[in-house]
Amino acid sequence: MGLLDDKVVLVNGGTQGVGAAVARAAAREGAVVAVTGRRPQPGEALVAELTAAGAEALFLRADLADAERSRGAVAEVVAARGRIDCLVNAAGLTSRGTLLDTTPELFDQHIAVNLRAPFFAMQAAVADMVARGAPGSIVNVITSSAHGGQPFLAPYVAAKAGLIGLTRNAAHAHRFDRIRINGLNIGWTETEGEDATQRTFHGAGDDWRERAAARLPMGRLGRPDEIADFVVFLLSERSGVVTGSVIEWDQNVLGGLD
Questions:
Q1: CB-based burial of residue 228 (10 Å sphere; 0-12 exposed, 13-18 middle, 19+ buried)?
Q2: Taking a C-beta distance cutoff of 8 angstroms, is the pair 92, 113 a contact?
Q3: Tens of pLDDT along 3-46?
Q4: 82 an active-site residue?
Q5: Which of 59, 120, 156, 249 is catalytic?
């Protein structure tokens, strides 16, 4: 459909899972796509895949826990392509911790990746858009757990809840700059990262997906490609004037009780 024709899109955390799915969907819709990640191999493999399919793509190695690198990745995109039109913050740290056992170090790690990195990436992207007097669109991939979550997600919830507030604050601040900023609270999703999390922290076996699906209303986990299509819609002009919205992308209804 060409929803993102000629748009320059940066996907932070774009080398696997939801981020990689967003990169693929954006490329299919005509965007020039840049992705960040800590590991070169999956990043370069994804860029090769997108390039082979006819898209323009580049990989930027970045540890987003470093605030300067979050801003620097945006600067590299602007230097390489002259501008940035869209930003997706899809990187996320999901290591476990409760209120009682979370260390200051673990808490700081979550704040660095899940809140500070999006803050400074948005700062750099919005600065470029404002300097050019051009509209733009940003989507933050958040989580339905930001409303409270499980006890073992305390630092994760703290950081992601902050990202909800930041999304709305930034959207309000830059609405007259025609920069739309929205968020997506995603539910349980089948990704490589979730597989590693389930095995590492919960002792899950090969059947964890089937066991999880049996407990969910739709009988399955969410899929990255579905989320990616929604993100692309929010980035595109087809989502109209929508800004400051944090949309629940989940199969459980917030506030619903049995």
A1: buried
A2: yes
A3: 999 999 999 999 999 999 999 999 999 999 999 999 999 999 99
A4: no
A5: 156
